[in-house]
């Protein structure tokens, strides 16, 4: 008996998953290009790139039954087609409408994924796109088609002059079907769609050839329709190549997707989202030898490798004792196990690393919308977007970084008029950069605005009853900004002024075992520096003993270790116990009764922790205490040591802030 044939579509859910991911990438590419478009002279390749991405979304959504997505992207296609043909000039309203359309498509995808309970209302944005597309069609209806022949040529036309002339006609209308035979005896033929009179066309052509070599024929009626249809068919064939089909081989599909990503236009960098790193050359495709893996599978692999690291540490501690009589082969096996475990750990952790561009790519859109709302001119410069972070950190760093950029634009940058009065360019600059420094990633958000107002901050502190030492340094004054509810905004707006901001940023960064630092100069701007570890799963740690228990301190926070005498720890009036380290007096946190001081730093502040004994330095696998027990102030997590015992990981930021706060209260 013949078995029924398998479903040709296979698992529909898997096709949906591919479509959702493809659509996310296409929408991100569309937004990036829209934000860098030059309204005065948009690059043809940029418009084509947006068209191809929208066409791919439309084709796939229709095939998979997502008709509402297909309908909206189809209208967007019509507008883009009108712009590509030069039927109307690109305007700010076009860019705004397409950005809003992209937002609606994102919500439609979220609804189809099950992340939204109700589908978005797309009627308003669809009506706006239709209106804009139809205005281009009306303009095209008033244009005339001309067939042009220049020649026969006695001598070749200067190439630069010829290109300048054709570019000028492209700005006036649309040049179609070029046939350039620029040599003695040859000719130049092309069709052009213009809303200008024939006399205007001839005046442009006479700039490169004598009037007697110019032959212009009106392509009215059927001929005009033929020319327009030929042009549309040529453009449509290019667009069709960019789409993908449900039955395309996955490797072909991924390779095609990488080639669909729009490239940078030549010339000056764009105002929103300027990147100073090198871009991939045009036409170069990314390597398609990769596969998609669910995040849950990677997380499980990381957990298993973590358990392997713990097991290897246990074996090393159990059999690595000099008293054990191990044969040479057994010792070699232990060393090989340690080496292979470390290599496997590095390889698995690298799988979780993703470029920070996943966060940075959102910032140009944020800057554009916020600057329009505030009446400011802003240029965002991005560097280091290829710097990699653990995937879990990427998700958690997004909100704090977004808030810092909002602050830079809202509080940091002046209005164009104020900048001109201060002798600055009208357009303010917000620079966002990332770089790796050891086991940490450092992110800087810098603006060239007016800088922090020391007197205003001190006045706000006085109003809130916050005591500040008379000779406090600028760095100490800047720390007041991180106080809960602290705000220097004169009024509450939809952007700022509610006192909910920098304290939340610092708290969120501290939860990632990172720190935040501020630097500012009056009239020159403010720099916020955020440092976070590369990964939260496995870290280098220093282990110490306190009252018979083992604790772990993240090595990135440890500055130095020193043995101290009892007479070196002194009580200072108003500051409690302090330890003099060179020319500075550090607050002391007595964890044990020993004479070993571990100098640690967090958020620009330092403290000395007294412990009984140093145990060693090693990599540890971080386990969430909150997930398995509950949140404990001063403890950021736990780990399993080589002897099988649990060691708590100290929250250095909390410990240092407690010591600093106690010192200030006593003062």
Characteristic terms for this protein:
elongated; 22% strand; 6-stranded mixed beta sheet; alpha+beta; 5 domains; 667 residues; Alpha-Beta Plaits; Four Helix Bundle (Hemerythrin (Met), subunit A)
Description of the molecule:
By secondary structure, the chain is an alpha+beta fold. The chain is 44% helix and 22% strand. The chain has 5 domains: 12-140 and 245-268, HPT domain (Four Helix Bundle (Hemerythrin (Met), subunit A)); 144-219, Alpha-Beta Plaits (2-Layer Sandwich); 295-351; 355-533, Histidine kinase-like ATPase, C-terminal domain (Heat Shock Protein 90); 538-666, SH3 type barrels (Roll), CATH 2.30.30.40. Helix 3 (67-84) runs antiparallel to helix 4 (92-113).
The gist of it:
This protein is of the alpha+beta class and 667 residues long.
The CATH superfamily of the largest domain is Histidine kinase-like ATPase, C-terminal domain
Q: What class do helices, strands and sheet pairing give? A: alpha+beta
Please give the alpha-carbon distance between the first and last residues.
Answer: 92 Å
Poorly predicted regions are 1-10, 221-288
Instruction: Kindly state the number of beta strands.
Output: 23
The CATH topology of the largest domain: Heat Shock Protein 90
Strand order of the largest sheet: 5-7-9-10-12-11
CATH architecture of the largest domain: 2-Layer Sandwich
How many helical elements?
20
**What value does the average pLDDT take?**
77
Biggest sheet record: 6 strands, mixed
Instruction: Tell me the helix content.
Output: 40-55%
Q: Roughly how many Å is the radius of gyration?
A: 32 Å
How many domains make up the coordinates?
5
Residues in β-strands, percent: 15-25%
Coarse morphology: elongated
- Briefly, what CATH class of the largest domain? Alpha Beta
